[in-house]
Amino acid sequence: xxxxxxxxxxxxxxxxxxxxxxxxxxxxxxxxxxxxxxxxxxxxxxxxxxxxxxxxxxxxxxxxxxxxxxxxxxxxxxxxxxxxxxxxxxxxxxxxxxxxxxxxxxxxxxxxxxxxxxxxxxxxxxxxxxxxxxxxxxxxxxxxxxxxxxxxxxxxxx
Length: 158
Known about the structure:
This protein has helices at 3-14, 42-48, 53-76, 80-103, 108-157, and strands at residues 21-27, 30-36. A hairpin with a 2-residue loop joins strand 1 (21-27) and strand 2 (30-36). The chain is 74% helix and 9% strand. Helix 1 (3-14) runs parallel beside helix 4 (80-103), helix 3 (53-76) packs parallel to helix 5 and helix 4 (80-103) packs antiparallel against helix 5 (108-157). With 158 residues, it is mainly α.
């Protein structure tokens, strides 16, 4: 799963409102998420297209695993711009996952699985944030050492 696919899925998750549901749509060659807004006909539509919460949770668990792998790759490769993009998307998606928990509040297993996914999102976000903080500190340290080296050289030249 590439970064753009992850970002697209996180953007869809971000759009979930209270009592909305998430659908996994199987297209030829790909699988996508879609928000199924709370409507009177949504139960019929979900039944007809075989959209169900177990498939959705499995997709979210796989997405979470891919996010964790991608975050490790970005952190180890020092890709700070991508780290920031993924981190922002993760934080935005948390609200949608929380709303999904409200939708399924009577299903304790689904709520527990969503809680685990939310906790993993938060853990990955902290790792990405630490990477960004460390990168910013490194840049600041480098800038200040370059500045002091320049000032020392200028003082020696006088």
